[in-house]
Amino acid sequence: MEIENQKLLIEGAKAFGIYLDEEAIKRFDLYLKELLKWNQKINLTAIRSEKGIVLKHFLDSLSVNLYLPKPSSVLDIGSGAGFPGIPLIIVQPTLQTTLIDSVRKKVDFQRHVIRLLDLRGTEAIHGRAQDKEIVQHLGGRFDIALSRAFSDLRTFLFLSLPFLREGGTAIAMKGETDDKESKLVAEAKQTPYRFKKAVKLTLPFSHFKRTISLFEKI
After folding, report:
1. What does the pLDDT look like over 155-178, one tens digit per residue?
2. How many domains does the chain have?
3. pTM listed for this prediction
4. Are 199 and 211 in contact (CB under 8 A)?
């Protein structure tokens, strides 16, 4: 990773109250290199520059770290190239994290990175969150279910519900949204969640606006 981009990562993480040690920086560097290398053969991300990955993937993933209790078990639905799950476990090694994606090649990449970075307590599963076998295997196991621009909010809440423990939290990471939408969905009879809050932010060193919406399973 170029020095300039490494500084962006370090300073951007500080904006979220995260202080990266040498080991974490090394892991992010390896992750970035593997992502760029694999992306030449398979479509993992449309963002192909170091700086873009640091700003739009790494820092975007870390923006939700504040809302993860320590310790906790986390399910990342529609994890793609490992976002936000892998950056989060790099900065919180005690997380028990499960990544789910329906694209086999992306899951292969996730598993490669998990092995390379020695991310213990992390597993990558190929499949869909609505698959009966996955629901039976993972149902009720998680404190947190999250997704990053995976689907519309209603679908995400529906899919995440069976995986959460009672009192668990669903976290939707979206672009700039209207929090009235979140309240309407949460208050719908078919959605057994309590809307907690929606946090609006701008990613460090960019103009990219994000909304983090939190819902408690009741």
Report:
1. 899 999 999 999 999 999 988 766
2. 1
3. 0.93
4. yes
